[in-house]
From TrEMBL:
Domain of life: Bacteria
Name of protein: Nickel transport system permease protein nikC
Organism taxonomic ancestry: Bacteria, Pseudomonadati, Pseudomonadota, Gammaproteobacteria, Enterobacterales
Keywords: Cell inner membrane, Cell membrane, Membrane, Transmembrane, Transmembrane helix, Transport
Principal subcellular localization: membrane
Organism: Escherichia coli
Gene expressing this chain: nikC_1
Domain ABC transmembrane type-1 positions: 1-146
């Protein structure tokens, strides 16, 4: 968990080989532990709540408690975290492609475009600017969508705005 996901992804792509499929596999495998830790911490924080204890006292099993009570509280938080993490993963893919470890050139990808434009930076700087701007806008858009989802789905924020 303390090992940087970027280094782990670089290593996995080095083992698996370049290409979009291998990059996606490497990023997914390097990020799963973080998501598992987040789900675990959410479940631990919720399992001592009154509604979960009442369900357990009424005879519900672990699966029933998870499906009826915990999944409904965990899935919105996980959806928000995943939406916010999409921007990070986009930067991760672009960085790997820029370094030549991810998607390779004839495939249109922003990291490849920025890397190809490096040789023209002094004569045609806009060739590097536009893919960088597109990447920036896309990452910002996913962050804004994640913030909006958090504002919409977080029950604590909903009750605070109501008062």
């Amino acid at each position: 968990m303390t090992f940087p996901t970027s280094i782990l992804s670089f290593f996995m792509v080095g083992v698996l080989g370049t290409g979009l499929t291998n990059v996606i596999i490497a990023i997914a495998l390097s990020h799963w532990a973080w998501y598992a830790r987040m789900v675990r911490s959410l479940v631990i924080s919720l399992r001592q709540r009154e509604f979960v204890l009442a369900s357990r006292l009424s005879g519900a099993g672990h699966v029933r408690v998870f499906v009826d009570h915990l999944a409904g509280a965990v899935i919105p938080s996980l959806l928000v975290l995943a939406t916010l993490d999409i921007g990070h993963m986009m930067l991760h893919v672009a960085g790997m492609s820029f370094l030549g470890l991810g998607v390779t050139a004839p495939t249109a990808e922003w990291g490849v475009m920025i890397n190809d434009a490096r040789q023209y930076i002094w004569t045609q700087p806009l060739q590097m600017f536009w893919p960088g701007l597109a990447l920036f806008i896309s990452v910002m858009a996913f962050n804004l969508v994640g913030d909006a989802l958090r504002d919409h789905l977080d029950p604590h924020l909903v009750t605070e705005h109501a008062h």
